[in-house]
């Protein structure tokens, strides 16, 4: 299997470049029948492995690709990687204004959470996540690594390439040796992770999901209701195959203020909804710690970290001409010569598990929302105007175990660390992730024991100058293939 990865490395690098050059916004990743789309290219690449490859409709312009290497017996190992990427943002911030160039380059670690990204004749100095900086500091003697540059390279097309590489190598090794694994490997290349997670839900969660209809969700469970014959990994741009064992939950809120319209020449006759919103935003920004303290006794930050709150990540109002509310008709608003009677902002809150996790997850989420509302009521004078809060989205926190020590004792985690040590030359410590992954749904809804995040090294996801380390993508093919063998064994 390792030899097959090495033989396939150059080909997979070419596939990864092609995937980076292919925009794949959430909900428009494409279909298997569209050869020029992200989904079409993944389907075509997987179809060369000698495995069973199919597609699963999720939306009119998006399909999951599901690749299966059949084994013997009921056990299964799921490798899941999402195929969508966030929009590029301001194209002028990228090299030559092209966010999809898939340019080869280098990243050099400078220390202090700073790197230099070298592409073409340009050098861009950027900050990276402290967790990734820790990998550079603790485990790496060299300070330069080969990269591919472009939107989606790290989040999440490097992961897709690692999964394709692992499946190709496993299939090739089994065929050459005329053996079968003691269970089935399922690679799911899913859509829409960045927005609504509809891809992972269609694949793993609903009664008519792919996993359910193929019998993988109906096997025996342990005392906590987790399946015992199925396990998996959720691949996402990460820290170089360091096992991530949890991430905080999220609740996203929309705050709407309503005032009274008036002519801008007579502002005293109106109530400015934008000004009202400014009061709420400043109050919450100044009082984020107080809000967290209100729910702190019910939350346990020891594994996943404390609650955080980002206020006003988007805002609309004032001179906005029209807004299309989800599930509501378009709302038209006046121009700049009118006092705005409406304004909306968003709040993104991340919170750790409660002491009764997972049974108290919804209760803890409701407590967080109530704390925000109580803080606004106690610190903002709302005479003459009103506000409302509605939930846009919430997902529960995920923890493979209550502590790092207990997570480290899980066989799935032990096997990944051992294989990472074999391939990388060091045994990685466990980590948690700042953002969410599809493991939320694999664990809470499908009840599959899942490494919460695993993936190649890189940086700057959702930012300009995103990159993925090439050698880390190749190493991932080896680690995933070896882990599949550990989880399933060989057929007798």
How are the secondary structure elements laid out?
Layout lengths: L1 H19 L17 H9 L5 E8 L2 E8 L6 E7 L20 E9 L2 E6 L2 E6 L2 H10 L4 E6 L3 H25 L6 E7 L7 H7 L5 H4 L16 E6 L8 E4 L1 E10 L3 E2 L9 H14 L1 H8 L5 H4 L3 E10 L4 E3 L5 E3 L5 E2 L2 E10 L9 H19 L6 E10 L2 E2 L4 H5 L2 H14 L6 E3 L5 H6 L5 E5 L3 E2 L7 E3 H19 L4
Parallel strand pairs: 3-8, 3-9, 9-21, 10-20
Antiparallel strand pairs: 1-2, 2-8, 4-5, 4-7, 5-6, 7-23, 10-19, 11-17, 11-18, 12-16, 13-17, 14-15, 22-23
Helix pairs in contact: 1-4, 1-14, 4-14, 8-10, 12-14
- Count of helical regions: 14
- How are the strands of the biggest sheet laid out side by side? 1-2-8-3-9-21
Q: Structural class, please?
A: alpha+beta
Largest sheet: 6 strands, mixed
From the N-terminal CA to the C-terminal CA, the straight-line distance is 19 Å
Radius of gyration from the alpha-carbon trace, in angstroms: 24 Å
Counting DSSP E segments of at least 2 residues, the number of strands comes to 23
Write the CATH architecture name of the largest domain. Answer: 3-Layer(aba) Sandwich
What is the percent of helical residues? 25-40%
Shape: globular
Provide the number of structural domains: 2
CATH homologous superfamily classification of the largest domain: Zn peptidases
On the 0 to 100 scale, the average pLDDT is: 94
Note the beta-strand portion: 25-35%
Here the CATH topology of the largest domain equals: Aminopeptidase
Low-confidence spans: none
CATH C-level name of the largest domain:
Alpha Beta
């Amino acid at each position: 299997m390792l030899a097959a990865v090495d033989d396939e490395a150059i080909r997979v690098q070419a596939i990864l470049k092609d995937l980076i050059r292919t925009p794949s916004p959430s909900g428009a990743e494409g279909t298997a029948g569209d050869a020029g789309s992200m989904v079409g290219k993944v389907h075509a690449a997987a179809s060369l492995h000698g495995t069973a490859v199919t597609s699963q409709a999720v939306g009119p312009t998006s399909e999951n690709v599901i690749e299966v290497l059949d084994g013997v017996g009921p056990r299964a190992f799921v490798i899941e990687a999402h195929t969508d990427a966030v929009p590029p943002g301001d194209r002028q911030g990228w090299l030559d204004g092209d966010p999809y160039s898939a340019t080869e380059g280098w990243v050099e670690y400078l220390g202090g959470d700073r790197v230099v990204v070298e592409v073409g004749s340009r050098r861009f100095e950027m900050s990276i996540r402290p967790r990734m900086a820790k990998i550079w500091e603790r485990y790496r003697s060299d300070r330069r690594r080969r990269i591919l540059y472009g939107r989606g390279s790290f989040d999440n097309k490097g992961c897709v390439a690692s999964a394709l590489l692992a499946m190709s190598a496993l299939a090739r090794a089994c065929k050459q040796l005329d053996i079968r694994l003691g269970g089935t490997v399922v690679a799911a290349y899913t859509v829409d992770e960045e927005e609504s997670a509809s891809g992972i839900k269609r694949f793993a969660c609903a009664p008519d999901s792919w996993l359910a209809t193929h019998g993988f969700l109906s096997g025996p469970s342990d005392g906590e209701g987790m399946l015992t014959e199925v396990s998996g990994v959720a691949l996402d741009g990460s820290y170089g195959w360091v096992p991530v064992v949890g991430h905080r939950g999220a609740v996203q809120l929309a705050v709407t203020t309503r005032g009274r319209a008036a002519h801008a020449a007579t502002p005293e006759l109106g109530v400015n909804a934008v000004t009202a919103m400014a009061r709420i935003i400043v109050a919450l920004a100044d009082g984020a710690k107080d809000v967290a303290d209100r729910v702190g006794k019910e939350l346990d930050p020891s594994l996943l970290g404390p609650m955080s709150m980002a206020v006003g990540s988007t805002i609309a109002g004032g001179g906005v001409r029209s807004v299309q509310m989800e599930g509501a008709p378009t709302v038209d608003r006046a121009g700049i010569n009118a006092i705005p009677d409406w304004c909306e902002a968003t709040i993104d809150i991340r919170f750790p598990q409660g002491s009764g996790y997972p049974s108290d997850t919804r209760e803890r989420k409701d407590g967080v929302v109530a704390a925000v509302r109580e803080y606004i009521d106690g610190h903002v004078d709302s005479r003459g105007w009103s506000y409302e809060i509605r939930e846009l989205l919430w997902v529960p926190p995920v923890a493979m175990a209550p502590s790092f020590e207990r997570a480290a004792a899980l066989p799935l985690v032990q096997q990944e660390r051992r294989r990472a040590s074999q391939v990388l030359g060091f045994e990685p410590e466990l980590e948690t992730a700042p953002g969410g992954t599809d493991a939320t749904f694999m664990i809470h809804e499908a009840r599959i024991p899942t490494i919460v995040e695993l993936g190649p090294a890189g940086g700057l996801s959702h930012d300009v100058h995103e990159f993925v380390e090439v050698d880390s993508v190749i190493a991932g093919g080896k680690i995933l293939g070896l882990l599949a063998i550990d989880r399933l064994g060989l057929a007798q």
